[in-house]
Specification:
alpha+beta; Butyryl-Coa Dehydrogenase, subunit A, domain 1; Butyryl-CoA Dehydrogenase, subunit A, domain 2; Butyryl-CoA Dehydrogenase, subunit A, domain 3; 3 domains; four-stranded antiparallel β-sheet; 10 strands; 47% helix; globular; disordered N terminus; binds flavin-adenine dinucleotide
Length: 400
Amino acid sequence: MTPLESLNYAGTNGRLPVHIELPHELEQMRAALRKFTDRELEPLAKIVDATGELPAATLPLLAEQGYLSMRLPEGVGGAGMGLFPYCLMLEEFSRSHRIFALIAGAGGGLTPIAIAKHGTDEQRRKYLPGLMAGTLRTAFALTEPEAGSDNSAMKTRAEKTRGGWLINGRKHYITSADAADFLMVMAITDPEKRTRGGVSAFLVDRGTLGFQITRVDTTMGSAVVKLSELTFENCFVPDGSVVGNVGQGFDLAKESLNDGRMGISCSCIGMADRLIEMSIAHSKSRVTFGKPLAERQAIQWMLADSAVELATARALTYETLRQIDEGKDIGTGASMCKLYCSEMVGRVADRAVQIHGGMGIVKSYSVERFYRDVRHYRIGEGASEIQRMLIARDLIKNGL
Ligand SMILES: Cc1cc2nc3c(=O)[nH]c(=O)nc-3n(C[C@H](O)[C@H](O)[C@H](O)COP(=O)(O)OP(=O)(O)OC[C@H]3O[C@@H](n4cnc5c(N)ncnc54)[C@H](O)[C@@H]3O)c2cc1C
C-alpha cells in the first residue's frame, strides 16, 4: 500500500475526496472543533471585524477548552498531542477568522515549544502556565529591515556584559508584538559564526529598559493583526533569558520550521474550505437572468477548480502531517505544503469574490476579508519563491 492509499478517501458525503476521513479520534476532535468554532468563535469573529480588536474573552475561552496547551509536553502541563491534531485545530479555527489560529499558536508556536523543550525550569515556570491559561501572549522576532528572506544578513547584536547581555538592533514585521507580554528575540552573539552557531534566542519582557516598540503597522489584512517594529538600544537582559545554549538560536528556529509551515498550510485549507462552502451556497441562492448562478457553466467551473485544488491540498498536507507524527524525515515536504496551500487559497479566494459579485467586495460580508487575509500567507514564514528554492535544491541534491 502506498502512503497515500493508507488514507481513506471516502468523503463525509461518501462521494468526494475533499473531506479525507481521518482516524476516529481525529474525526471526533474535528467535529468538536467545528461545533466550538461555529458556536463560540463565529460571534467573536463578527466583533473582531466590527472593532478591529480581539475580545478579551477569546484567550480564556480557548484556554478553558485546553486549546492553548494541547501541543505542549505533558511534563509542563500540556496534553502532549502531535502536530496533526494541533494543525486540525488551526484549520477549523481558520474557517472562522485567521486571528483565532494565530493566537492558538500561544500554546503551540515556536516560542512556547522552544521554552518547553530547551528552557530552564525558571523560564518554564515564569512563562508556560500563563501562555496555557491565556493570560500571557508572546511574539517571535527574527526579521529585520535588511534581513528578511535572507536571515543570514541579520544585524541585531547581543554582547556579553556582567550578569547578562546588551542587545542592540532593530526588528520589523513582528506579528502581535504590540500585544505581547514577552518576546523571543534572535540576536547575533558570535559575529564570526553568525547563523552557523552564532545566533542566540533571548526572552525579553515587555517594559524592559532599552526595548521599545517604535512602530505598529496594520496591513491589507484584518486590522486585528498588527506587525510591529522593535528597537533595542543597550537593552540589558540577564543570563537567564537565553533559551537553550548560547549560539543555539537558529537551531531552535529550524526545529519549529515544519510546525510553522504545516500550521499555515492547514489555516489555508480551513479558509479555502469555508470560501468554497460560501460560494456553493451563494451560487444556489442567487438568481440572474431567471436561473441560479449554480446552473451556469462559468460558475460551475470555478467551483470545480476550487474543490479539486482543495482536495489536492488536503491530501498532500494530511499525508505529510501523518508522516511527521510518525517521526519520518519529510525532507522539504512542509515547504511543498506551505507553497501549494498558500497559493491554492489565493486562487480559491479570488474565485469566491468573483462568484459573489458585489457581495464579494463589500465589508459587511466576510468574503472580502478572507480575500485580503489569505494574501499574507504567500509572504510570511518563507515566501513562495524561497519555498520553491528549498524544494528545488532538495530535488537536485536528493532526487524525487
Ligand atoms: C503577515 C506577516 C507576518 C510576519 N510575522 C513575522 C514575525 O512574527 N516574526 C518575524 O520575525 N518575521 C515576520 N514576518 C516577516 C517575514 O518573515 C518576511 O516578510 C519574509 O521572510 C520576507 O522577507 P522580506 O519581507 O524582507 O522580503 P524580501 O526578503 O525583501 O523579499 C522580497 C521578495 O523577493 C523574493 N526573494 C527574496 N530573495 C529571493 C531570491 N534569492 N530569489 C528569488 N526571489 C527572492 C521574496 O520571495 C519576496 O517575494 C512576517 C511577514 C508577514 C507578511
